[in-house]
Amino acid sequence: MPLGKMRILIASALAMEVLVLCASTAAAQPVINDVTAVDVVIKAQDPGVGGVAQGGAARIWGDNVAKDIGSSTYPTTVFLNGLEVLSVGASAGEVYFRIPPDTPLGPATVAVEVDGVMSNQAAFTVSAYAPTSFHDADTFHLDGTRVDEQNPVIPGETLRATGITGLGADPSPVVTATLGGLPFPVASLVEGAEDYPYPGVYEATFVVPAGIGPGLQAVTLTIGGVTWSFPDDEDWQLFIGGGGGGGGGATPSIAEG
């Protein structure tokens, strides 16, 4: 074979190999299937939930919206109404992002960019308030013990609940709560605490009513006339022990994963 033709064949083969390699390493198209509040139970479009809130966190569900390799997650850029916003966490099938406090109320769109490839745009609703908590958040006694049946709440004790969001644009939200239908005073509300160090996500301490009865008791949170309550879901209840107040208590788990 003439040398010139051999060089052409080799060059053609190398070019084909490069094309195949590029095709195999091209980024997959990210596809958003849904936008919800941060707890898996709540859909942002569900009646009565009122979407997700200004200043709060929301969750994107989809295919290829983020990538996990070992313990490292490659960055996903989130665009809300065409503007880049803060991403506060991601895994292979979901991305958490914050809705800026000045986002207009009403219909909104979100898209993600992964490895330079844009997703579709997904529609959802931004509300003034939509109280909820992260699905893997927990409630604890002040000694750090998680509240459960083995470590029940003691009437009169103070509890710590993590991962609360959807409390609106005001940096000092005013929240009321009940436990088993009784007032559940909010002793403190701290934004960006250690467990969830993000703007718009809060840790709260609550004082358990002294007259609360034993067993599972449902928690509600109310802000701006919007109430968060799931009385039939045990993950949204606290287990109350018998006996009187103080000591060794647990903290309420407003959302346990």
Q: Give the terminus-to-terminus CA distance.
A: 69 Å
Domains (count):
2
Mean pLDDT equals 79
CATH level-4 homologous superfamily of the largest domain: Immunoglobulins
Instruction: Determine Rg (CA atoms, Å).
Output: 24 Å
Task: Look up the CATH topology of the largest domain.
Answer: Immunoglobulin-like
Distinct helical segment count: 1
Silhouette: elongated
Percent of residues in beta strands: 35-45%
Quick one: how many beta strands?
22
Order of helices and strands: HEEEEEEEEEEEEEEEEEEEEEE
Structural class: mainly beta
Q: For the record, what CATH class of the largest domain applies? A: Mainly Beta
CATH architecture of the largest domain: Sandwich
Low-confidence stretches: 8-15, 18-24, 41-50, 244-257
> What level of helicity do the residues show?
under 10%
Major sheet: size, sense and barrel closure? 6 strands, mixed
Describe it.
With 257 residues, the chain is mainly beta. The protein folds into two domains: 31-127, Immunoglobulin-like (Sandwich), CATH 2.60.40.10; 132-240, Sandwich (Immunoglobulin-like), CATH 2.60.40. The protein contains one helix and 22 strands. The strands form five sheets. Strands 2, 6, 7, 10, 11 and 12 form a six-stranded mixed beta sheet that branches. Strands 13, 14, 15, 18 and 19 form a five-stranded antiparallel beta sheet that branches. Strand 20 and strand 21 form a beta hairpin. The N and C termini lie far apart (69 Å).
